[in-house]
Each structure stands twice: as C-alpha cells, then as structure tokens.
Amino acid sequence: METLGVVERVAALHRVQLFAAIPGRVLSAVARAAVELRLATDDVLMQEGAVEAHLFAIVEGRVRVHRGGRNVVELGPGASVGELAVLSPAPRAASVTAAEPTLLLRVDKAALDELLIDWPELAHGVISELVSRLRATTEYAEQSS
Amino acid sequence: MSGRPEHGVIALLTAQAVAFGVMLALVVVPANALFLDAYGAKWLPATYIAIAVFGSAASALIARAARRTRLVHVATVTLSTIAVLYAAAWLILVAGGMWVSAALLVLFPIALQLGFVFIGGQAGRLLDVRQMKERFPRIVGGFSVGFLVGGLLAIPLLDLLGSTEHLLLGTTVAQLAFLCLLLETERRFPEVRSAPAETSRDAPRPSARALFASSLVLLLLVYQLLSAMGSWLVDYLLFNRAHEHYSGDDLTRFLSWYTAALNLADILFLAVLAGPLMRRFGLRLGLVLNPAVVAAMLAAMAVVVAGPGAASFGLFVLVAVARMGDIVLTDGTTRTSVNAAFQVVPMRERLAVQTVVEGIGVPVAIGATGAVLLIMNLLGLGIGAVIALGVVVGVIWTASGAAMYASYKRALAEEMKRRSLVVSDDVAEDDAALQALLRSEDARDVRLGLDLLPGGVSSPISEALRQASDHADPEVRVRALLQLGAAGDGEAAAAAGRLARELARSSGPADRRAAAAALAACDGFAGRTTTMIALLDDPDLTVRAAALDAVAAEDGGEEEVVRRVVAALEEPRIAGSATAAVRRLGDAAVPMLAAALVRDGASRRRAMLRAAAEAARDHGATVIEPALRDPDRAVTLSALEALEAADGGAVVPPRLLEELFHDAAAHAARTLAARTTLAASDESLLRALEDETDLARRLVVAVLALRHGEQARHAVEVVDNAEGQRRALGVEALDVLISREEATIALPLVRRDLAPEEQAAALESLRPPVRSRAEWVDDLATDPESVWRSAWLALCARHAASRAVSRG
Question: I want to staple B101 with a disulfide (CB 3.0 to 4.6 A). Which of B35, B496, B726, B786 is the partner?
C-alpha cells in the first residue's frame, strides 16, 4: 500500500485550522511524527464519551459524525476531528465512523507536545490560532448579548 | 500606496475649495480696487495690523466654539456669518460707505485661513494620513481653479452689473455655495461630524500651556508664523516693485496677467508635480522646500540690489518669480505637509491647535509684518533692508521646517508606541501571612513562603524558618536552613551544606533538586564542583534545571561545568535555565558558546542564539556571526531577533546588516516572482514560497529593528494589526523612520493587504529574469546558485515536478 510523502502530509495538515498558519518547513516535523490510518467502510474512528488525545486529518474518503444514532455531519478531505483534544483531552462529544474507505493522518498528543517544545514557531502558530478563536468567540458573545 | 478614500469625498471637498476660491477672488478684486481708489497704497500696511487684531479675535471665537461643538456646526455658523457680512458690505458700499472696503481687505485673509481650517478639518476626518498626502494637493488645486475662475469672472460680471461694488453680490453667492457644499458633505459623510468623543461638551478644555507643551505643536506655530511673514514680505516686495515699473492701466494689466500666470502655474504644479513630489519625498521635502526656495530667491535679490541696484528689471523679475514660487509651493507642498503633520496631534487637541495656529498665529504674523514695514518705511530704510529682513526670515523658516520634520518623526514614533498600560499593584507581603505560609504542613505553601521572603528576616520569621528546617520535605528543609544561614546563622549554613551533599546522593529526584537548590545559595562547602557536575549530568531534567539555576559566576573557572551549561542550551526544556546560567558565567562561556554555535544544527536552538546574542552584546559580534551568516535564513532571523531582544544590534557590522537586508529583499522578490508564475495546482510549492516571502519580510523587519530601534518594530506592528487611520499612520511612521531606499523595499513587504502581484510590482528593481513555470520549479529543486537555501522548498519543488511528470 502506497504511503503519503512528507509534502502530501504537510498539505493535509495545512488544511487543519490549528496548523494553517504554520510554515511548511516547521509543520514537516509534525507530518513526520503523524501516523497514517486507513479505515474501511463502517470502521469506527472514535466513540462518543471516550477520552482520547488524537487529532485526525482526513486525506481521502469521508467519515460520518453521529451522536446517539443520529447523523450530525459528514466530513471529507481537508476536514479534521479532535483538533482541541490533541491539546487538552476531553470526552469525545460524538462518534465518528468511516462512510467509505478513508485515509487519515493521526497526530498524537505526546508527539505534538514534544514538537511544541522543540519548535517555538509551531507553538506560536497554535497559540495564535487559539487566540483568534477566543477573540471570535468573545466578539460573537458580545454581539449576541 | 494608500487605499482609496470613499467615493465622492475628494469631489465634494474639491468643489468646496473651488467655491471658496471663487468667493475669495470676488472679494479681493473689489476690495483692493475700492480701497486704493479711496485711500491710496500708503495705508495698506495699516490693514495688516487690523488683520492681526480682528483675525486673532475671530479665531479665538472659532477655537472656543470648536471645543464646545462639532466642526461642521462651527463651519456652518462661520460661513453663514461671513455671507451676511458680504451682503451687508454691498449695501453699505451702495450707500456710499467706502470705509467698508478696508474692512473687506481685513476680512480677506481671515476668511482665507478659516476656509482652509474648515476644509482641512473635514479632510482630516475623512482621509487618513497617507490619503491626505496624496489627495490634499488636488483639493487645494480646486481652490486655485476657483480663484482663477473668480478673477476671470470679475470682468464680465462688472460689465453685467455696471459697478465694482456690485461684484460683492457674486461674492455672497459663492460664499453660500461653499456653505451648501459643506452641508452636503456632512449629509453624505456623517463621519465628518466625528468628533470626537473627546471634544464633547464635557471634555476638559486644553490649556494653552498643555497645547503647546509638545515641541511639534510649538514648531507648527513657529513655522506657520514664519511662513506668513515670509509670504507677506514677498507679497509686499512684488507690489512695491510693480509700482516702481508700472503705473495706471499698465499696472492693472500687469497685475491681471501676473495673477493669471500665477494661478495657471499653481494649477499645473498641483496637477502634475505636487502629488508625485509628496509621495516620493514626503514631509522631509514638503516642509523645507518652500522656505528654502524663498530664502534662496531673496538671497539672489540681495545680490542684485548690491550689484545692478534696486531699480533694475532683474530684481523685479526675481521678485515676481519668488512670489509665484511661494504661492505655488505653499499650495502644493507646505499646506499639505502641515495638514499631514497635524494628523499626529491627538484628535482632542487637533482642531483647537489648528485654529489657534492658523487663525491667530498667522494674523499676528501678518500684523507684525505690517508694523515692521511701516516702521522701515518711516525710517526710509528702502527695499534693500526689506530684502535683508526677508533673507533672515527665510533662513529661520527653513531651519524651523527641518526641526519640525525631526519633531514630526519623533511624534510619529511615540504614537506607534502608544498602547494601553496595565498597571500592576505591588504585592504586599506581610509578616503574618509569611509566617502562616512557612509554618504550614503543606510543602507547597512553605515553598511559596520561601519564594516570597524579603531580604531581611525578622525574629518571628526566623522562628518560622527554624520550624520549616524540620519539615518532611527535603527541599523545604534545605532552603529554610539556607535562609537562616544567609541571615547570619553559621550553624544553619553548615547544616545546609551537609544536607545538600547527602541529598545529592539520594535516589529521589526531589532530594537531588533540593541539593541543587542548596548549591544555589551555598558556595562554600567542600565538594561543590563535584556535586554540581553530578547534578548537571542528572538523568532527571528537573534536577538538571535546578543545577543550572545554581551555577554562579565563580563556576566559570570549572571547564567541565561550563561545557555542561553550554550543552544544556540545546535541550529546549532546560534552555531557559541554561541561558540564565551562561549569562552569569559571562566571559568564561564565550569560547565554548562560539564553538557550539559553529557546529551544524546547534544554531537552530533559540536558547543558544539568545545566549550568544547576550554574549555578543558584551564581547562583540564574532560569537554570533556564524548564525548571522548561516545559509538557513530561519537561523539568521532567529539570530537577528535574539540580538534585538538582547539590545545588541550595535555590535553587528553595518556592512553585514546591509548584506542581510539585500539578501532578504532579493529573496522576497524571487519568491514573489515565482509565486506569480506557478500554477494553482502547485499548491504545496506555492504555500512554501508564501512562507519564504514571509520569512524574507521578517528578516527585513528584523534588520530595520536593529538599525532603527524599537520604533521601527512598533510601526510594523501597527501596520500589521491596526486598521484605518492608525494603520495609515503606521505606514507613514515607517516611511519617515527609515531611509528612502529601505522604505522602497520594506513598505510593500510589510503591507500584508497588498496582493503578491502588487508586492512584486513594487519590488520591480529586484525582480529576477522572467522564467517559465518549469524553469522556476527546476531552479527551486536544484538551486544551482544557492539562492533558495531551503531543503523544504527543494522538496516541494521536486514534488511539484514529479506531479507534473505523472500528469503529463
């Protein structure tokens, strides 16, 4: 089975919002540490309530996000699940199942933690993204109130 | 370079200026004609003094009103009042009251100044500083067109209406048109009312002392006073010489042609030269060109007076050219520059200062000029003395322009630094709280108490420390003993030494950490170096960090300690402690640090670069030069940023900084050229090039920060993060803080709002030869000239090439 090259892995990770602003030369370290995962149709990627610390970036195929037997959304290439769990693990809010043969990249918290220490630019990029989200949330809350 | 102002803003402001110009031409022609007919020229200087008195009073009223209400309200009331005055003057003249022509001559310069205050004030609210620099000359051009049209209108109007005084009906109509256009501007662009929350009724009124405490505001006042004096002296010289050479109808014909030529030159200059000149040279030229030209022309006049004599036609020509140059440059560069300089003055004070400076300062200068001219005439000093006075005024005026530009630069830099300050209150530690912490059973509380201990130890605190020295936690025990030892208890110090050696041999990391903490404050016990080396080699990172914290300057003599400290810089988790340890070791660490930095890959560690930058600050750039010359630009950037943080920029040879700046600029131009050629399908390569453009941008900014200090960095931050007026002010600040050559490269790179094509076009001079997509990909993949120097770029290029082959 053909595996992804570093360039393809970086391209996939660049589509993850958390890593979108990080230069490719830095993100290549994360790409090298990422694990390729191939799922067959109906394979379960994650279970609702499970406490895990992985981020998954979908490279090919589609996954179905469902909660309590009800489909929430379908995600395809470029989407990601578990972005925040890779930074701070929490029970999964929904289950995710492959809707067709799917190729994903998995980034583990332990690997990312190591890289965040070794690569200040990576840490800076992640923090900037989190701050942007916090600002957007605050603005939304202010507009709503 | 700046964004476009909202549609219609420039048109409306220009239309106001046209109506304003027509109105003034239609007041100056009848006022002069009627006054000269009735009283002759000898009393003209007396009107200058009246201008000072009434101009100051009128401006004080306007300034007072401006502080209490909005600009548009002040302008509406003022323009309406002036329209009523024109209509009343017409009635009085029709009734035979010629004295009102003197009042009109006095009103003319006051209306001129106030009109520009109102138009400039609106422009200041509707345009940012960059737009002001580029577009305000066009608005002022409207005034010149209006003045020309008004002058040309006077003759047919005179034929139509039959008498000179009836021209004032036209003046009144033009004034009302000006007013209507101002109200239309307010209706379409309500932000012109913006005023500023700060200028609300409740805002405190700035005192004159507060207003002029700023050197920039003071220089603005001085500059405009000298500008008015210089201009009126030249004006007087023209009429004086014209009267010398012409009389009767010939004089009228000359003045008509001269006025037409002057206005035409003014319009052409504003349309063709003023904008590009201001864009190219900005305020550094705009503030000195006018006074320098006037001073030079007056100096030439002085030479002619000394040679051919005051009656020569050459002098007359020089005077005519000088006045034309003065008017043209006042409209084209001076007024624009002064209005742009006002943008740095805080909004709350801007209109008040602007009104005081232009409305009071200028009339006073005119009055003073009139008084001096009257005295000189009474003393029979002649035209040569007037020219000599003009040279002195011109030179001081030029100097004040240069000083004002320097002050403007400083004010801009300060404005960039302005940020909200977080005021932190000192934490108050009191003995009772400390004792409670030190006596706690919880080791965390005791550690906090030990951290918060002040320099001196009181008796109750000593008791609490003795209690802590028996604590179950070894770190707490040893630290409490060390505190007691530091307070003079020799027995406790010895006990701390014994305990430290014992703990260093323990199998528990917490014990070994405690031993390291003891080393930090206890440098006199036997076996310190051996213990230190053992702890620096400890397998536990937290113990190593504690040992690094214990390294002191006197450990610099121990090579094995220094080697371990420098090596620790490469371990990110303890690099902070290692950097601080290197700082304490000082000179002793420099040779090993320099050697470590040369080793491949070591310079990628930020901590090592930080330590090297600090060493460079004290020992010269040699220690960090390998990193600055590293082929990997990311390493160079880290080194530059570390030098900036360490305040070590001064040690870097200027030639090296120049090389780095040009390498970064060329790299930016290359990456932009490649990006605009590659196909959208080369997604990864395009992204890698985008990252490289950003890297080049950061390198350029880092070099600028080292060359020009934190002001340049602040300006870039403002350009990056601010919007609207403040962002434009950031671009303007960069423009004046850095050199022209630097700005040509840095500004297009710093502005993230520009598309890559626009950035590439702005860096035209650095653009590499045109290449096809395939040639760019091949160049990036093989890098035959070692210009790209990026393994990641090469990898992405090879990937793009292989995809192209597989698609083909």
Answer: B35
